[in-house]
Design brief:
Two copies of one chain form a homodimer.
Chain A: H1 20-25, H2 33-40, E1 45-49, E2 54-56, E3 64-70, E4 73-78, E5 84-90, E6 109-112, E7 116-122, H3 123-132, H4 134-160, H5 163-180, E8 188-190, H6 195-202, H7 206-218, E9 222-225, E10 228-231, H8 234-241, H9 253-259, H10 263-268
Antiparallel strand pairs in A: 1-7, 2-6, 3-7, 4-5, 4-6, 8-10, 9-10
Helix pairs in contact in A: 3-4, 5-7, 5-8, 6-7
The first copy, chain A, binds a DNA duplex (30 and 30 nucleotides) through residues 162-163, 194-196, 204-208, 210-211, 214.
DNA sequence: CGTTAACTTGATAGCATTCAACTAGCGTGG
DNA sequence: CCACGCTAGTTGAATGCTATCAAGTTAACG
């Protein structure tokens, strides 16, 4: 990616390997040199967004897409009764509003769950890139499809599982995804969501989330303090959750881990 | 689409206008003559599938995509306890396993909910078409994104709404979608799902679906008999459901209705 | 050291599930 | 022709998971 100077811009060393979007797409399609160059050449604006700040709001007509460089975002919709449903969490390398490239009007909002760093790319640039490099378009399309698979699993979660499995399942998913970006060393990962927010994601009240987490801790499956989660017994946690990672459509775990860039490089972006 | 003779093959008059895929895609991107020709030129096999028959099974590695010509399909996944979650219903013009074009392995199954007619197109043909006509690729990508929006709304449905609104909401969605394909004249549409299946879609037991439908009937919002639903009070039904069609990402209702082909032409395919 | 957000704990209430029995429609076969 | 079985739909009663309400605790922060 080429740099553009702007209000919140930052400048730092950058390479193909440390570009989170390349890192992500390359797990499924092998990008040619020219394709990687095209991604690196995308104009973008790097911005810091604060905790709890909205990136996109329902009914917006977006003209750019965000790439998460660092931090945690979520998609959500506010329901009429003031309740809120969280649809997904987005970590480094994700494009939470990729949908906006195709939708006239957003049907949901996107917010930062902690201070985060985002790279904003204009829609025209993405469109042009996709026209010139159709395989990148296919790779991005694939991301949309993979997001859909996650939505389906979340539907299973809220409709078909009980509180205990439901909560465990979300933890399993976040662990696998973060591990895929080398952000969960030793089964431990930073996950800055409140119990209230967790409840909005799994369809439970904050009170019940609390009791459920206590049970997960009591059974020795996880520990969760200071916004950081540790998997204490991965096998039992998966079993308790009924977690089957197929829906995440990743490569085999070992390959996954091998191809992911080391965390140090990731931080360099 | 060009014809190929095969086991269940049928031959009949066919035009651009009666091709359900063109009809669907054209609502959002205007296809050029060449692009329409490319779609018409897709090789396909027309097949009849029986009620309750699986088109795709979980863990399959599909090599073709189905286009619904007539009938009703659903995506679903069987949960460990024998329960089943339905993720979506698919009507004329839909490509229920478009995902399969990008996923190595299917994470869910697809079944016919009544005897249906499908056009199967090999993945290679789709891939080739998308390479030659990137705008068709974009249109299909958009379909994937729109499917994702529906999943999100279903998540809201099962997680955030009560049985009454939940059931009403599904009816609203099916009505709008079917109307968009001119399959719901006079607020009446064929919807061959059992109460058990409806429960699998909205996350309720069949017993509770029954009581909920009775309430909807009692309040004079719908009638539902002989697998056919009639909207008796569209305004009140929408209000009861908390239904806001934005998430379906259609054009304005009037435009929508105007662009949809007449039902007679549709049947000709 | 007061204020606030996040977390914790207990008690009560309600929506939906489950179990169970019963009805209606429909095709099959004796 | 009727008995039978099967599926779909209906109804009632009891159980249970989770929400809600309410109060209290902890931790962070100015």
């Amino acid at each position: 990616m080429r740099f553009r100077l702007h209000d919140h811009e930052r400048s730092m060393p950058l390479s193909h390997a440390s570009n989170p979007l390349i890192a992500k797409l390359q797990r499924f399609v092998s990008l040619s040199r020219a394709e990687k160059d095209a991604i690196v050449a995308l104009p973008f604006i790097l911005k810091q967004v604060g905790d709890n700040q909205d990136i996109v709001r329902e009914r917006d007509k977006p003209s750019q897409c965000a790439i998460v460089v660092q931090g945690l975002l979520c998609r959500y919709k506010t329901l009429n009764e003031g309740a809120r449903q969280i649809f997904s969490f987005h970590i480094r390398g994700d494009m939470p509003d990729l949908d906006g490239l195709h939708l006239e009007i957003m049907d949901h909002s996107i917010a930062a769950m902690e201070a985060s760093t985002l790279a904003f790319v204009p829609h025209e640039s993405l469109t042009a890139m996709v026209e010139n490099y159709p395989r990148i378009g296919v790779a991005l399309w694939r991301e949309s499809v993979a997001d859909g698979a996650i939505y389906r699993e979340w539907m299973v979660n809220v409709a078909g599982r009980e509180a205990y499995q439901r909560t465990a399942h979300l933890i399993c998913e976040m662990y696998v995804r973060l591990r895929g970006m080398s952000l969960a060393p030793n089964g431990c990962f930073h996950f800055p969501v409140t119990q209230e927010e967790l409840g909005d994601a799994v369809g439970l009240s904050a009170v019940h989330v609390n009791r459920t987490l206590q049970q997960l801790r009591r059974e020795g499956l996880i520990s969760w303090k200071n916004r950081s989660v540790t998997i204490l017994d991965w096998d039992r946690l998966q079993k308790a959750a009924g977690f089957d990672p197929v829906y995440l459509h990743r490569l085999e775990p070992e390959v996954d881990a091998a191809m992911a860039m080391p965390q140090s490089l990731g931080q360099a972006f």
